[in-house]
């Protein structure tokens, strides 16, 4: 009878070894657009096996996405980025912070009056997570992958909030009242660059701010565009698309009363010959790249 526990132990050990070996980094960048309904959550695993999450969606669906794309024994996310403090981007982060060890939390200083945002502030404070405010011209590296911040511009944001903002690297803020402002305009816009592969992650930074972005930075040709604001008709301008020339545009969208993605948005993407992937139709969308070529999964 003593052989049975021994054999079960061997079997369990073999399973753990198999999971560990198959979950080791493959030296490629994995960009996963989670299927979280009408909201945004983007999980990124770098070739160096570092993890970044951009937004958390409107509910706990993001946990399923993380569970599918991170090994069960990995409970650390190196950086979480909240593009802007609206519930369809932030609510899922409440569960993420409960379940995972988050090293850094990146966001704009602006806050909202949503109860979920206040809970998020409290959880970040209780867990002692380091908060970083980044602006146009700042960047950070995760291993070999560079993230350039294209928006918001510090002076513009200070004027909108009516507050002077501390310089990057000093005291960081989360929750300056932005009552009466369009929170979408504050979205952190990130240009991900890895080798010859470029992606633009836009939050909900739509046509209202794109002329300012185009005026202040040299926009690259990109492989992947995350369509701003879930495919709204004001999500992107034709001029912005002409500058970016995206090969693939991903629309993170679910059932909604606004008709997202709109016919206007889809027609514009067709006119610039960009392929389209949609989470409401395609489910979770994964792009894998070695920095030279990329594939859609």
TrEMBL record:
It comes from the Bacteria. Transmembrane segments: none annotated. Pfam families: Lactamase_B. CDD domains: ComA-like_MBL-fold. This is Competence protein ComEC, competence protein ComEC. Residues 38-255 form the Metallo-beta-lactamase domain. InterPro entries: ComA-like_MBL (IPR035681), Competence_DNA_uptake (IPR052159), Metallo-B-lactamas (IPR001279), RibonucZ/Hydroxyglut_hydro (IPR036866).
